[in-house]
């Protein structure tokens, strides 16, 4: 497999040397657990946070509410339960 992206595309790959801090959470509604998520990220600054069962829909107000300061976010929302999110420094 050949990678087309490196540290210039994802600077966090080289910032921590060979160590990347990764966390996965099954949020079971990201909106209702968002304050806990922010507290956890503040205490443990992960490079990558993946989330399943975010239960988010393509609602601009909800998506704005669940913005994590200092991180880039990618959402794959559904009209029903499920959906996933990726949060990167």
Characteristic terms for this protein:
89 residues, 3 helices, disordered N terminus, four-stranded mixed beta sheet, single chain
Shape estimate: globular
Radius of gyration from CA coordinates:
14 Å
Query: What is the count of β-strands?
Result: 4
N-to-C span: 25 Å
Number of domains: 1
Q: Please name the fourth-level CATH homologous superfamily.
A: Vaccinia Virus protein VP39
Helical content class: 10-25%
User: How many alpha or pi helices?
Assistant: 3
Detail the topology: elements first, then pairings.
Layout: H1 12-15, E1 22-26, H2 34-43, E2 48-52, H3 60-65, E3 72-76, E4 84-88
Parallel strand pairs: 1-2
Antiparallel strand pairs: 2-4, 3-4
Task: Describe it.
With 89 residues, this protein is α+β, with helices and mostly antiparallel strands. The chain has one domain (20-88): Vaccinia Virus protein VP39 (Rossmann fold, 3-Layer(aba) Sandwich), CATH 3.40.50.150. It contains three helices and four strands; from the N terminus they run αβαβαββ. The protein has helices at 12-15, 34-43, 60-65; strands spanning 22-26, 48-52, 72-76, 84-88. A four-stranded mixed sheet has the order 1-2-4-3, with no helix packed on it. The model is unreliable at 1-5 (pLDDT under 50).
